[in-house]
């Protein structure tokens, strides 16, 4: 909630004073100078832990000078204007070849990095397992703190990499999450950010964090080992007022075992690393195309051919991303820069627009590389941010409804421009905001909407492309793949992406503006309006092969076929489930000792709850199981329900996609009808029903609201997947890991009544 830029000087000073007062409270809490109990006794917090509605403290309190909320001051721009800085392309990571070698300790195969990198081999079992055998004398101790094992992955068979030999990693990535290196800013005229303002990824073991976000190009048939080092400050208070120095990287929404999903209560601490094995498994690998004979179920081999894989080609994934998922701190950590893009290439979605082999769709991309070309296939990570009076990134930790920024950011740049050739481009648009929904249209210089073709939703290809003049509302974490044909324009022409969706708070959008009104901007929501510019040019240097020049006279060989894939049919379910998201109940994340599992901020209240099959409503506890999937391969029909209250919720299901069957309370657009998705916007008091089928891996996962402020205030529910793989610990309920600065201990989880899979839903 921002006061307008035309507000009086005294109103702006009042709002800035309130923001500074809140920052002082955060600092005092972080340094343990005061406690939550002290703040309640002094009347600064309510009994529920919410910030008291007082002038000079809360942005929602009335001004001393007018009957309006105190608000948040607008971000200072330092003279920066839109479309004066060029778009950064995402920071491409380079794969490292791994050597398969039999371990000298007789524990099976390990994946060795090149010797020059001086890295421990990656293994099926965590190094925590060895550490636990002799903690006092272990060589696998955290070198930064002298505490905890060097690997954050929990010990033992439960968190061993599932199906390790079957999906053995062939390439690796080494990245560091850490403070920025002092060269991070969102525009040339904006201040450099302090190291603790942004926490981003760097390439390598000890690299400083940086913007733009990373990009990994993956392909089916080539499993990946991603080693993430936590190089954040040991002192939790060195965070510029928000963010937790513990992390777990969630590969949204890949088909991975729970130990590599990044959301199984497995955060790790400064000085440690975590090995994620991203298996590139195609869903239904145990049930469909089990002999890998279908050429459409495949990945590029790097030499013009294909590597066939098991599974259902209709479930290939494309535009994906990864982000922090430290429970109770996800919004803060992602907002600070803990995120990146992952493009998954397959036989049909090759990333080469020239190869014609009867499988490749030849979507816009480029031709200089065998696969994964990005010259004309562009990741656009869109979010909103705000900055304090000194130009440093700001986040209000006391807002439980949702956090909005007042500056549109694309790939880390404030309202950038991009030069394009007059030809077809594919754009992979990710909404990485914390609470903001977007609705995007492409507009020419005369203010007219330009037709676009949407080809995928949440990384899943449509059966047929859909022509639109405006994209549908795009909730947090949704990905929309579109193709724009710039050939109808002349060199020198300019076009804009325009956001037409207005917010007045973090509950969700309150209205959609016409293009004409959105183009003029809106003082009450500065992110409404043009936020990115395209400039038509005659030549461009290649991103894939620097030094090579693409020219407008080169023929565009890309296609947008009329059929992209085949429809997955709707079938009778084994069981149905109803999952309600809202504010029913009082929030029971804290135990009798006032602690959460995992630990949560002392200031946290828990207004957000999840209610399943009509049972009691609960806020999140990682040691509590709300849903058990008893058998891989069971087809279920789920209905997600928004319990109302004026909020919208984009709900994300981990591990599997669902085929969207029906929607109530909101329009059911063609881009969702029978489309595979992993995030569903519910609409105010609305609901969505979809078909889902789990398989291949097991363990603990979650579903949750991806308005990450709602998520952090406990709108999550744990899911337990039971795999049918013989000998796997995931054939049974898995224990809950509890990470601490001195290692991991396990607890036996509680299964809620609604977790029993064949229990009939109760009324209400």
From TrEMBL:
This is Copper oxidase. Residues 617-718 form the Plastocyanin-like domain. Gene3D superfamilies: Cupredoxins - blue copper proteins. InterPro entries: Cu-oxidase_C (IPR011706), Cu-oxidase_fam (IPR045087), Cupredoxin (IPR008972). GO terms for molecular function: copper ion binding; oxidoreductase activity. It comes from the Bacteria. SUPFAM superfamilies: Cupredoxins.
